[in-house]
Design brief:
Length: about 100
């Protein structure tokens, strides 16, 4: 009877060791999968961040270019207006001088 109890205890210990070994192996597998998933998420986040940064940079550069174009256009319009106004005033002043000179004769 003692031998049978000892044998059963030994069998239980063997079974317990097997269960523990399987549990440890499963825990290691789960841990490795979690580490892989974390690494994958980090890579994805870094790529998305880089993509968003590049997109924002491109949007900023386009906005800057649009602002420069608008300012150039505004400057050109102002320059043209000043030139036309100056030419009209000069023409008017010349006409006035010519009239005065002609009237004084």
């Amino acid at each position: 009877m003692c031998a049978k109890i000892v044998e059963q205890i030994l069998n239980i210990e063997v079974e317990a060791d097997r269960i523990i070994a399987e549990a440890e192996a499963e825990a290691k597998r789960i841990h490795a999968e979690a580490e892989d998933k974390i690494a994958s998420l980090r890579k994805t986040a870094a790529a998305e961040s880089e993509s968003a940064s590049a997109r924002q940079q491109a949007e900023f550069e386009q906005s800057w270019k649009n602002e420069e174009d608008a300012l150039r256009s505004e400057f050109s319009a102002a320059r043209d207006h000043i030139q036309k106004t100056g030419a009209a005033r000069l023409s008017s002043a010349i006409a006035w001088v010519v009239k005065k000179v002609t009237d004084s004769r």
